[in-house]
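Morning!

This is the sequence you dropped in the shared folder:
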Amino acid sequence: MVIDPLPAEDPTGLRGQPGITGELEAHLLELAKKDKGLREFMHAFPTPKNVDDVWNPVRGRYRIVDAWAHLYQMLRFAFDDVNLAEGKDWFKPFVAAMCAWQECEYRELLGMPPALEGPKTESWKKAMKMAAFMEFVLEGSRFPDLEWQERGDEIVKEQFRETMSRLMAERARTHR
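The structure's back. Tokens below.
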């Protein structure tokens, strides 16, 4: 949401990774009306009349959350919770996965096409896999990225089955 679209520079290095486009900034005002979490966050500020009225608080919140995330990242070194093998630590892939998942949620809310490749069902499965990364981090897995790579598809299949069963049951109830 705070990544500028091309051709602007992306200091995060996230734009262009799967599911991350930098296209959401132009839709901030609409998102502030449609997304419950963002709407609640914006309730602490004057009612937004333009994109800047949303951009400034969102950018401020991003900077605070980014600072906390990097503080926790540095604490991981103190507790020997990092993988020093080049390119194998989980922090950056985790951040990218969470950003891709959130962008997918926002794009769906806005009626925008998915940013993850494939038909809609497949792009949603990819987004669900991105979201599943959080489970392995919260479980305290030593290498959550490895757990995610090895078990992420399995979790998505379970969640997809459960979601489809729930939707079919709801549809059956409404068509009685």
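Headline: Helices lie at 28-34, 36-42, 51-78, 91-110, 120-138, 144-174.

More detail when I'm at my desk.
O.
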